[in-house]
Amino acid sequence: MSGVIVSMRRTLLSCTSLVRNGMIGSALAALLPAAPAEAADLVDTLSVLLDFNRQELAVLTTALALLGFSVVAAILLMRTRVRTAKNEARLRARIGELQLQADRFGALLFAEPQVLISWPAGDDRAQISGDISMVLPRDSSPQRVLAFGTWLPPEPALQMDHAVDALRDRGDGFQITLTTAHGHTLEAIGRAIGGQAIVRIRELSGLRRELAETNLRYKALSDETEMLRGFAAAAPWPIWGKAENGALTFANPAYVRATEATSVGDAQERKLELLDSADRTAMDRGLKEAASFTSRLPIVIGGERRIYDVRAVNVGSGSVGVAIDASEANALSAALVRMAEAHRRTLDQLSSGVAVFDGQRRLAFYNDSYRRLWDLDRTFLDANPDDSSVLDQLRAARKLPEQPDFRAWKAKLHEAYRAVEAAKDTWYLPDGRALSVVTTPNPEGGVTYLFDDVTESLELARRFDGMIRVQRETLDSLAEGVAVFGSNGKAQLFNPAFVRMWKLSADAMRDEPHIQTVEGWCHQLFDDPAVWRQIREAVTSIESRADVPLKLERKDGSVLDGMIRPLHDGATMLTFQDITDTENVERALRERNEALEAADQMKVDFVHHVSYELRSPLTTIIGFAHFLSDPSTGPLTPKQAEYLDYVTKSTNALLALTNNILDLATIDAGAMKLELGPVDVSKTIELAAEGIQDRLATDRIRLKVEIAPDIGSFIGDEKRVVQVLYNLLANAVGFSPQDSTVGISARRTEHSVVFTVTDSGPGIPADMKDKVFNWFESRSQGSRHRGAGLGLSLVRSFVELHGGKVRVDSIVGRGTVVICDFPTDQAAHRDAAE
Q: What's the short name of a Pfam family annotated to this entry (predicted)?
């Protein structure tokens, strides 16, 4: 419409321009192109009026333009109405045709029962049409069709859900055959058409239903076949199938492996057989005669002969077979037979007479002890006589107990065949023997008789009673108080010593009082509730049955050593022994030992204190001595330098002594810790030798060092090892005469590094060897050596801290050899120490 207005506006502007230029006819022609006759009349009329002035002509031009616009608008409106009427008529005719066509398609679409479900693109609301009664009752809501689980079993419903989701998300079409919960067979087809997801559900009938059902049965049969093939492939037993002519048609991998073929085709091509010819002939004969074959046959597989249960049946025009490994079952069966024979042999070795009668009351088994017990003939027993015949023969031989009514006695004995539990009795035979008889019903029927000669047992019981009386008298004569309480907590046995020790009444104890009552009587002498609770719990306890030692210090000053001892019959024995005198002696010894330990600790504390107090001034003196010896402090006279040298040597010796004392005290207190690391043996000997070079030079002593080429290193505290070797070398130099030789050597063994230091001094007397490692043990033995006697003590302490050992070999007049073993594996030493 806006385009028409714009066009008319342009036309009016053109007409106005033409009128102004005197071209009125052209203007009218432009305004009225559809009415040339009327335009011509207007031109003539306007030509008459050309004489008007310009102002009137402008007004007339405007009026004519308005008139032209109105005329053109009217004409256009008339044309639009005519065109609209024609279009409306054509549209109504087309709508009628489309409605007719839609009715025809709808009638064709729903000519058979079906349901259509459609989802427009991007819309989750489904449009449902058709006959929903094929899946739901008629009064159901159409939207319930979308809940597939309401009219389909779980598995098809889940399948439909997944198919519909794939159709709506990706446009994947599907065609599914469904069976409803009521047994109807339906077909569901899903397609994406015109931007919509459409699902068509219809019932299959006639040939289509039969075809669908056939497909379902075929799928089920195919699945079953695949399952059986998978089972056969996974089965460890050889399985095969054969045609009517005996050709191999199927074999599982176990069959292929058993016949040593590379594949089923290889087994078919080479005609490999699992059974040998004789067994195959027997199997073919069995299949022909009875349509089945079962036998336990030996088969060689992988070079090993094993026993298999072979089963084959006719199937259709062929046969199938399987071979199940029965080697273990065969071995178990043989073992069971051997076990039964072993049991029989074992029963034959028993001293008890055993006779087994079966369900028909006939003798099925007997051992030799049974035959000898009753002195029966073996031929008679091997004939499997019945129970009554055996008893009658024993009665005739006067070997059974005398009975006033033998028939009633035998009937009562034979009740064991109907009993469910074993029965026990004692027979007193006319010859003076006593037999214990146990009759046990057998699960498979029958009775087992077990006869034991208990004559000696009864005699032993009589002897036991006499022994108990002797033990009772012995118990009464003991100085140790003894009382036995039963599992019910009551006193069963006591001796006079127990009564005297706790000042109890013997008559009251004979009434078997409870342990709580006895506790109340004993409170006057001992009233510790924790101890009495422990005694009560031990007497009445069921689970915790262990010896419990006691030590009681009573109010009267006496001390008792007690023991709670559980007995095998559930009783508990209490024993008490007066150890007052022993305790007093022990207490005195303990106090003396504590005093000695306190004195020893005081000595160690004194050494610690004095050593630390000495180190501080010594350090000051040594510092000032070094300061005075420094040339920067000024020159010294020769005498002053000599005196200062004496001071330095003395303070250094005193500091070394103090350090040694501190080390020994630290080791003695157990506070010494080794700083473990690799110890280079050669370097360690070199460091130790440097410390004695001045003494070697002064005394003109030669040091001989011998180190094995493969000595290497070991794990230890290098500083302490150097200290050990230095003390040994210093000790050897001190005891060696001038112009002699001191030797040090090192060698490696399997588990240790061995250092050996030798000298040619005066040696150590035999009575002194055990004392050389003691503190402050120092003897010159006629040598120049002087010292506090701590060097060897430190040596032994440091070596033992490393887990090693120190040995001294010495002969008076021939020198001394000190040997130190350092273990190479410190980890093993720590584990052993822990």
A: HisKA
Q: b/e string for 226-254 if b means 16 or more Cβ within 10 A?
A: eeeeeebeeeebbbbbbeeeeebebbbbb
Confidence tier at 756 by pLDDT (50, 70, 90): very high
For the ranges 25-34, 121-130, 498-507, the lowest mean pLDDT is seen at: 25-34
Tell me the two tokens of residue 107. Answer: 């009638």
- Residue 56: pLDDT band (50, 70, 90) is low
Cross-strand partners of 707: 746
SS3 content of the chain, % helix, strand, coil (to 5): 50, 20, 25
Cα–Cα distance measured from residue 746 to residue 757, given in angstroms and rounded to the nearest whole number: 9
The tally of CA atoms less than 13 A away on the side-chain side of residue 302 is: 6
Residue 511 CA to residue 98 CA, distance in Å, equals 121
**Which residues contact residue 272 at a Cβ distance below 8 angstroms, ignoring those fewer than 6 apart?**
248, 259, 260, 261, 266
Burial call 508-540: b when 16+ CB within 10 Å, e when fewer: ebeebbbbebbbeebeeebeeeeebeebbebbe
* Eight-class DSSP state of 417: G
Average pLDDT (198-207) is 72
Q: What are phi and psi for residue 378, nearest 5 degrees? A: -65, -35
* Residue linked to tokens 């639009």: 80
Rounded Cα distance between 267 and 247, Å, is 10
* Alpha-helical regions (H) of 142-201: 154-170
User: CB neighbours of 612 closer than 8 A, spacing ≥ 6?
Assistant: 662
For a pLDDT cut of 70, what percent of the chain falls above it? 79
Q: How far apart are CA 741 and CA 651, in angstroms?
A: 29
Q: Which helix (H) or strand (E) covers residue 796, if one does?
A: helix 791-801
DSSP assignment letter at 741: E
Query: Can you list the alpha helix ranges (DSSP code H) found in 576-672?
Result: 580-629, 638-668
Q: Are 754 and 821 in contact (CB under 8 A)?
A: yes
Both tokens of 470, joined, read: 């002797």
Residue pair 768/825 in contact (Cβ under 8 Å)? The answer is: no
Tokens encoding 770: 């055990």
Q: Is the dihedral of CA 192, 194, 197, 200 positive or negative?
A: negative
Q: Where are the alpha helices (DSSP H) in 122-263?
A: 154-170, 206-234, 253-258
Q: How far is CA 779 from the centre of its chain?
A: 67
Cα(740)–Cα(701) distance, integer angstroms: 5
Please tell me whether residue 569 adopts helix, strand or coil conformation.
coil
Better pLDDT: 604 or 275: 275
Helix 54-109 × helix 2-20 angle, to 10°: 160
- Spacing of C-alpha 269 from chain mean position: 51
CA distance 630 to 430: 123
pLDDT range class, residue 834, cuts 50, 70, 90: very low
Taking the C-alpha atoms of residue 796 and residue 808, their distance in angstroms, rounded to an integer, is 11
Alpha carbon of residue 481 to chain centroid:
54
Q: How far apart are CA 636 and CA 16, in angstroms?
A: 143
Rounded Cα gap, residues 68 and 379, in angstroms = 156
- CA atoms in the 13 A half-sphere facing the CB of 710: 4
Q: Determine contact, residues 437/450, Cβ cutoff 8 Å.
A: yes
Identity of the amino acid at 8? M
Q: What is the CA radius of gyration of the chain?
A: 63
